[in-house]
Description:
Blueprint: H1 3-11, E1 15-19, H2 45-60, E2 69-71, H3 75-85, E3 90-92, H4 95-101, H5 108-123, E4 132-136, E5 153-158, E6 165-171, H6 173-179
Parallel strand pairs: 1-4, 2-3, 2-4
Antiparallel strand pairs: 1-5, 5-6
Helix pairs in contact: 2-3
Amino acid sequence: MNRSLLDSLRKGGFIFYSRHGEANVGRDLSNLNFQNCLTQRNLSEKGRREAIYYGDILRYLRIPIKYPVASSPFCRTIETAQLAFGSGNVQVDPFWVDVYRLTGNLPSGDKQRILNGLQSVLELKPEEGRNNIIIAHSFPKGIGLGQIPNMGTVIVKPSGIGNGYEVFGQLFLSDLSKLGC
């Protein structure tokens, strides 16, 4: 990571699409219930540390964030967002469940509807001088923003509604910590 990238991120105007921290506790059951974390995979202790570190490093680097941050309704994404940015700074958005569903066997019409919705979200420019944060899920290989590792972040530069977006880069936690040096 270089200084010019950090300077760009500090000016705002990006969307940070981040996958939740490591989640290897439990499993997503067929009777998954968003109000019952026992029916879902949840963050491990490592995942919790990753989430805390992610928020700490963004603050340390003085990267401006628009609050509230968006989160999928899964317990692992909400907990990641709350640990990183504070429980009062998270807004759950059910749309991100659809992104999670892309990993399943969906009819092509459903898949296209989800990808069109994703396109609309990623085209929306953030408030001047801020960056939007989304804590959600990885994508299947070659779909959407592609595969994202635990606490990996895809940096998106929106061009405005109907004008597309550019994937500016992908960052890992180790990349963010190098920026602080």
